[in-house]
Amino acid sequence: MKTAHELRPGNVIMLDGSPWVVLKTETTRSGRNAAIVKLKLKHVLQNSTTEQTFKGEDKMEDIILDRLDCTYSYYADPMYVFMDEEYNQYDVEAENLGDAKDYIVDGMEEQCQVTFYEGKAISVELPTTIVREVTYTEPAARGDTSGKVMKPATIEGGATITVAEFVKTGDKIEIDPRTGEFKKRV
Question: Which residues belong to any copy of the Elongation factor P C-terminal domain (predicted)?
Answer without folding.
Answer: 130-185
